[in-house]
Specification:
- This protein is α/β, with parallel strands linked by helices.
- It has helices at residues 8-16, 34-41, 59-66, 82-94, 110-118, 137-143, 166-179, 233-243, 252-261, 266-292, 316-327, 351-371, and strands at residues 22-23, 77-80, 100-105, 121-128, 134-135, 148-154, 182-186, 209-214, 227-230, 295-296, 305-310, 329-330, 332-333, 342-346.
- The strands form three sheets. An eight-stranded mixed beta sheet has the order 2-9-8-7-6-3-4-5, with helices on both faces.
- Helix 3 packs parallel to helix 9.
């Protein structure tokens, strides 16, 4: 156990997100209530039996998920306890000690952390700020070799909110095909695009793709803890077999509610709500950053997240801790993505709460600026 690598960001969030006044560490849109979801669907849930559900997800739910992917069927889908379980069982199935795994970074650190702890060699391909958070094709060519068994990509990206361009997708797919490597595509922010055009899945681009998704980020339903994997049918069976050793099945109630959320009539209404909120949230956050004058941030393509570089003389984890302790405000420090002097700000909160949270952040920036003035240091 001494070699165990803690998942720093998740421990930070799970420890503090429910005890601060304002939580800007969340990357999804503000959650819906049960009443809102049922009202959108025009349904009730009081007759749902609270038993063990179908362990890979009900047929109705898997059909609804499969509709989101080209040429997929229910046999390609395994429903999981959030995308965290989906990513976990994918890594458990597809990575062995000694495997070579290539990860596009910065990223959600679950998958590289799991790969390292399984005993794989992890090679990173940087998403370059100077290229609008795209990979340099030459970096892909160098990193992805015949020894590479798996390539992990989060698209749209966490933490940057960037969507891979067509050129980046093509370069990644070509490098994977040349190496004979699988692609694990974490696509949980699909549906939360600010321009309304959904990001095309990697599923269907190659026979060697596993795509993961969930209801947590784009749908505002994280409390349902419903995620999924989409994989070739034979591999989906293997993934399902691993799930027998973890959570076994989703609950009947969450499976039922997820089926409603992904139904043809309800899903577009949920995503309309999401896009309205994130467009306003980004407008408020972008304006605030301009006013502060110490942030540089590329506008995100998707998700309720801004990955902002800041020009302040303070480490990102120290800044985050100061905000938490002094202002009861939670953010994610760039250190959690191996990017100091960045912060990830969630802007999916309702407008009053978002503005109040940013005001508290502004107080710390103002206090730091005042402390840095010559008179504040005892000089004239």
């Amino acid at each position: 156990m001494s070699d165990f690598l803690p998942f720093t960001m998740e421990r930070w969030q799970s420890t503090y997100e429910n005890v601060v006044d304002y939580n800007l560490s969340e990357s999804g849109v503000h959650p819906m209530t049960l009443g809102e979801l049922l009202a959108l669907a025009g349904r009730r849930a009081d007759d749902v039996r609270l038993g063990y559900g179908q362990s890979n997800g009900s047929l109705e739910l898997r059909h609804n998920i499969a509709r989101l992917y080209r040429n997929a069927s229910a046999d390609n889908v395994c429903v999981t306890n959030g995308s965290a379980e989906a990513n976990f069982i994918a890594m458990w199935t597809m990575v062995q000690p000694g495997s070579e795994v290539v990860v596009l970074t910065p990223t959600y650190m679950q998958t590289p952390g799991l790969a390292a702890q399984i005993g794989a060699t992890v090679r990173e391909v940087p998403l370059r700020e100077s290229l609008a958070w795209q990979p340099d094709p030459s970096d892909l060519e160098r990193a992805i070799t015949p020894e590479t068994s798996l390539i992990v990509v989060t698209n749209p990206s966490n933490p940057t909110g960037a969507v891979l361009t067509e050129a980046s997708r093509t370069a990644l797919l070509r490098a994977a095909a040349r190496a004979g490597a699988w692609i694990l595509a974490d696509e949980v922010y699909t549906g939360a695009e600010l321009d309304g055009e959904e990001t095309r899945s990697f599923w269907g681009e190659s026979p060697h793709v596993v795509a993961t998704g969930s209801l947590s980020k784009a749908y505002g339903l994280p409390g349902l803890r419903i995620g999924w994997l989409v994989a070739p049918a034979d591999l989906a069976e293997q993934l399902w077999a691993r799930k027998d050793y973890t959570t076994i099945s989703p609950g009947d109630l969450t499976d039922y509610l997820a089926g409603l959320a992904l139904s043809k009539d309800v899903r577009p209404r949920i995503l309309q709500r999401t896009r309205q909120r994130i467009r306003l949230g980004w407008q408020i956050t972008e304006s605030w950053m301009r006013e502060m004058g110490c942030f540089t941030c590329r506008a995100p393509d998707a998700g309720a997240i801004a990955f902002a570089r800041y020009d302040l003389p303070i480490n990102s984890s120290v800044l985050a801790e100061r905000l938490r302790v002094e202002k009861s405000l939670l953010i994610v420090p760039g250190d959690h993505f191996q990017c100091d002097h960045f912060v990830r700000l969630g802007f999916g909160l309702p407008e009053p709460a978002l503005r109040a949270a940013l005001d508290r952040f502004a107080e710390v920036i103002t206090e730091m600026s005042a402390a840095d003035l010559p008179h504040a240091r005892g000089h004239t």
